[in-house]
Amino acid sequence: MDLANGALRQIVTRLPKIELHRHLEASFRLSTLIEIAIEHNIEMPEYTIEMLRPFVQMMPGEERSPQHFLAKFLTLRQFFCSPEIIRRVTREAIEDAAADNIKYMELRLTPRALSNILNCSFQSVMEWICAEVEAAQALHDIQVRLILSMNRHESVEIGQQVLEVALAFRDRGVVAVDLAGNEQEYSAKPFQDIFHRARVEGLGITIHAGEWAGAQNIRDAVETLYADRIGHGVRVIDDPRLIHWLAEHGTALEICPTSNVDSGVVANWHEHPLPHLYREGVTTTINTDDPLICNITLTDEIIRAIDEMDFTLDDIKRNILNAAQSAFLPPAERAALVSRFRQMLEFDT
Fold first, then answer.
1. Residues 287, 21 contacting (CB under 8 angstroms)
2. What domain count does the chain have?
3. How many Cβ atoms sit within 10 Å of the Cβ of residue 193?
4. Which long-range contacts (CB under 8 A, 24 or more apart) does 60-63 make?
5. Are 69 and 262 in contact (CB under 8 A)?
6. Does 8 map to a domain?
7. Element (H, E) at 177
8. Residue 332: CATH number of its domain
9. Residue 213 domain-assigned?
10. Is the pLDDT assigned to residue 212 strictly greater than 90?
11. Whole-angstrom Cα distance, residue 209 to residue 212?
12. 35 flagged as catalytic
């Protein structure tokens, strides 16, 4: 797009946006981490943002690998040491999204990770988070729904607990469940009964697949776990027949380009499969995944898609509209969201 960067940023900042794949646990503000460390006596060599940054954010020159990327989460999870912190991070994540002109967001969280240090129930975690979501929505022009994640490298029993709390909080904004975790070494198949029940109960299903392992994991997510959407899914590029199948069936991919580069899934921006998948008719959406770790906003992500992937503004609008059409909302609410975004984006085709 032939615009000076400042002009492009103004245009993209003003665009109404949708985020379908953002992890609460990686949505801290750096300044908040420092304040928490001081208040809760979390030991640090010095209490400055620049000292902390390399431990929670991918840095220039740092090796791009899953190991380095996931190590940032290990540091971040140490900070969830009070109910007030969980509430604050939730509130600030929504404030930051609203400031980026995100109008609809599905924020995902892992109850097990948030409850570990406090040794509290998943129910308590959800009470705190839902209260903050409700309050923040009342103050900002944003609609927020919640996705609850379980990890494939943890027990099926934990997954069952996640499903139970998801069902218990459906009337407080929970719309879907997710399977994440180590897809290279752990099969999704032991969780089939959990996701079958989620399907029967009417919850949406999104599965992290085809990120750090191959296209077969995407097939398993669709065929075994009844996935409506796929988290990441970039390894589908290795299977042309599966690309065609996803395009034909409208299965949405929640693509997070900067995260894919930072975690070593894709070597660089120019090799990212997003443009090819989009032009093959796959329902692609653009997301941040982990705003703190990647040091990005959704505006930043979109600008990179334009600068590095030769997306046009119309391509971006189509991806935003794809996200509206793929939202985990009841049909009437989803139709209203799509209609609203068509109008706001001045989208006629």
1. yes
2. 1
3. 12
4. 63/264
5. yes
6. no
7. strand 174-180
8. 3.20.20.140
9. yes
10. no
11. 8
12. no
Q: Which of 211, 223, 248, 346 is flagged as catalytic?
A: 211
Residue 328: pLDDT above 70? yes
The amino acid sitting at 147 is I
Give the phi and the psi of residue 285 in degrees, each rounded to 5: -135, 155
Closest CA to 286 of 265, 316, 245: 316
Say how many Å lie between the first and final Cα of the chain, rounded. 20
Helices (H) then strands (E): counts for the chain: 17, 8
- For residue 349, being part of any structural domain is answered with no
Residue 166 · residue 137 · CB < 8 Å: no
Give the range of the structural domain holding residue 315, as residue numbers without chain letter.
18-344
Placement of tokens 């209609």 in the chain: 339
- Is 1 contained in some domain? no
State the Cα torsion 205-211-213-215 to the nearest 10°: 70
Mean pLDDT within 193-218: 96
Residue 301 has pLDDT above 60, yes or no: yes
* Residue 338 near residue 318 (C-beta atoms within 8 A): no
Specify the amino acid at residue 36.
Answer: I
